[in-house]
Amino acid sequence: MQTDLLILLIPLLPLIGFIINGIGFRKVPTSLVGIIGALGPLAAFACVLLVFDGFTTISELGNAAPIRTVLFDWITVGHFNIPFSFQIDQLSLIMLLIVTGVGSLIHIYSIGYMKHDDGYGKFMAFLNLFLFFMLLLVMGSNYVVMFIGWEGVGLCSYLLIGFWNKNTSYNNAARKAFVMNRIGDLGFLLGIFMIMGAFGTVEYLEVFEQAAGFPVSDPTVVAITMLLFVGAMGKSAQIPLYTWLPDAMAGPTPVSALIHAATMVTAGIYMVVRSNVLYTLSPITLEIMGGIAIATALLAASIGLVQNDIKKVLAYSTVSQLGYMFLGLSVMGYTSGMFHVMTHAFFKALLFLGAGSVIHAMADEQDIRKMGGLRKYLPVTYWTFLIATIAISGIPPFAGFFSKDEILMHVYEHNKFLWILGVIGSAMTSFYMFRLLFLTFFGRFRGTEHTREHLHESPATMTVPLLVLAVLSVIGGFFNVPEALGGSAHLAEFLNPIFELSHKVRPEAFNETLLTHSEEYMLMGISSGVAILSLVVAYVLYIQRVTMPEPDTVDRPVVEKVLYNKYYIDELYETIIVKPTRGLSDAFYSFGEFIIDGVVNGIGWGVKQTSGQLRKMQTGSIGFYLFAMVVSIATILWLRFFIKF
Q: TM spans, by residue (predicted)?
């Protein structure tokens, strides 16, 4: 009973914060807004820790069964029932720790970052609501509850990306995110309908138990997994539904950290890992996923090489890293995919919050060409940003090295060509991240003298979350250290029960690694070596040679121009999708306005004119009325007896 109450409180506490700040955002004192906004996520994180402790204690006693809490029977049609219920198991606990832990730090950071904004209370309320829906998505025991959270985070992303709604471009970015996510969500919804038809239920445990009896590559399972993956492509920004995510930088920086690091964009990864049995039964879907994943990783990384907006670089980095996560899942490295979700949450949240600290100090300037030399003005921001940069670049012994290396090892076993492409992507990641670091924090200051005079380190509410995330970015990789390095895969051991059915339906696909320790050392050495080599190249270009990115007005070489303009994909979508759709809608509008409205208005005009003439017959003369009555009676009798119908 106590556990059920704690489970209920996890999503309820952020919701209470949303209600208080949301209803009273103009009345709650500014000093209380941040406390109320941050208290819900912090208390939810405490509840998660208590549930995690209780669950691990029970698991150690030999009972690793999921905890299922039914709140109420929601939809019942005949024998078909959908309860509103939560499921707590190893996977949901890992996600809950990430979402509430990193989410709490982002809420605390927001107190310092947004305190002087006119919509401070509303902003904190929206953050709380976002967290509430993300928790529903993670905790649901069936696909329908997941879908509620799935749609909820989409709605909140629209509200938060377009938070500064007086700016038209920000509103356009919010609308773009909303529309592109709806495209993916349609696929997800169709997948859920197919699950209902194929299994007669949407409960995870029942669906997966029945699915285990299906043959490998069953057409129904293939169709379901493809449709679910379309949903994941939208939410987790994979080709072709990725262009909304870089534009999402229009929102305040804490929003970027929340969406890009710990919550919304990882929803697709979570859904695939949760549905691992279905995907294990569908090798063709995994192959397609792998192709899309590596294409996304390389395309986004190459665009990031030449971007000059500090948040845009990080946005394309997120798209690229999500590609790596899906790449790991495509070779059934489900644990490695989740491991990278965890480490990415640490260092990417740190990078975005660090970027926010820079923007805060630079009076909202985001162009790295106007920065430089900031390490002496922002020492805490610099050191924490450096740690996150090393971590995301995959340089040992920081967190990103272990998770990215584990993905690349799984890929190497599966497909050597994909591994080569993955290593190339890793090299590009290291280059553009150190390019960003060097241009922002090293060299001479390139901003105005007025900006220089006001440079200062951020307040404690912003720097403390940076320090906590920096520590996690350093130690986060030690949860799953390879045996070759004398470590123990604690995360893999903890998540093993989630993948038991997958091991049963295709045991040959989960054979123990054939890599020797020497091969593992070789792979680690190559991935680390290319990352360090990219660091050196970036150092030579931007520190020794003091190379500066060109202004936008300068004509660039063809390749750089294509990369700088993001392969013109937004323009392509505008030409082949947006303009034709808008033209079609304008045509329908014109048809409705001139044809349908013309007919309706014409009928109305005719009735009006006819009635205007007929009313003149109302003269008040009794003799005329008697004459009209006789004529009418005669007409009726004639119609009745002489006209045959």
A: 6-25, 32-52, 91-111, 123-141, 147-165, 186-205, 211-234, 255-273, 285-306, 313-335, 341-359, 380-399, 419-442, 463-481, 521-542, 622-643
- Helix 219-235 with 283-304: angle, nearest 10 deg: 20
Q: In the chain, how many domains are there?
A: 2
502 lies in the same domain as 544: yes
Report how far residue 265's alpha carbon sits from residue 308's, in angstroms, rounded to the nearest whole number.
23
Note the pLDDT tens digit of each residue in 139-177.
999 999 999 999 999 999 999 998 888 888 888 888 888
Q: Determine what percent of the chain falls in helix, strand and coil, rounding each to the nearest 5.
A: 75, 5, 20
**Residue 450, domain member (yes or no):** yes
- Return all residues near 453 (Cβ < 8 A) that are at least 6 apart: none
Q: Which of 492, 514, 548 is the last residue of a domain?
A: 548
Tokens of 330: 């495509």
Is residue 512 in some structural domain?
yes
Instruction: Identify whether residues 364 and 483 lie together within a single domain.
Output: yes
The helix or strand, by DSSP H or E, that contains position 76, with its residue range, turns out to be strand 67-77
Instruction: Tell me, yes or no, whether 539 and 604 share the same domain.
Output: no
C-alpha–C-alpha distance, residues 306 and 271, integer Å:
33
Rounded to two decimals, the pTM is 0.90
Q: Do 510 and 619 fall within a single domain?
A: no
User: Rounded to an integer, what distance in angstroms lies between the CA atom of residue 607 and that of residue 629?
Assistant: 23
Helices 334-361 + 399-414 axis angle, to 10: 140
Read off the pLDDT of residues 321-335 as tens digits, 9 standing for 90 and up: 999 999 999 999 999
The boundaries of the domain holding residue 393 are 141-548
pLDDT of residue 368: 92
Residue 306 DSSP code: S
The CA distances from residue 541 to 111, 394, 538, 545, in Å, are 38, 21, 5, 5
Q: Do 216 and 179 have their domain in common? A: yes
Among 492, 513, 548, give the residue marking a domain's end. Answer: 548
> pLDDT per residue over 176-203, tens digit each?
889 899 999 999 999 999 999 999 999 9
Pair (209, 152) in one structural domain: yes
Backbone phi and psi for residue 608, each to the nearest 5 degrees, phi listed first: -65, -45
List, in sequence order, every beta strand (DSSP E) within 409-515.
Answer: none
Same domain membership, residue 577 and residue 503: no
User: Which range (107-116, 236-245, 579-588) has the least confidence?
Assistant: 579-588
pLDDT at 421: 95
Task: Spell out a b/e string for 369-391, using b for 16 or more CB atoms within 10 Å of the CB, else e.
Answer: bebbbbbebbebbbbbbbbbbbb
Residues 6+ apart with CB under 8 A from 89: 66, 67, 497, 498
Q: Are the C-beta atoms of residues 339 and 491 closer than 8 Å to each other?
A: yes
Nearest to 352 by CA among 430, 451, 433: 433
CA 265 to mean position of chain CA atoms: 2
* Nearest alpha-carbon partner for 482 in 262, 335, 346: 335
For residue 454, give the 3-state DSSP assignment: coil
Instruction: Report helix, strand or coil for 213.
Output: coil
Measured between alpha carbons, how far is 214 from 221 in angstroms, rounded to an integer?
Answer: 8
Same domain flag for 302 and 362: yes
Q: What is the pLDDT of residues 12-28, one digit of tens each?
A: 999 999 999 888 777 88
Nearest to 296 by CA among 341, 226, 232, 391: 232
Helix (H, G, I), strand (E, B) or coil at 325: helix
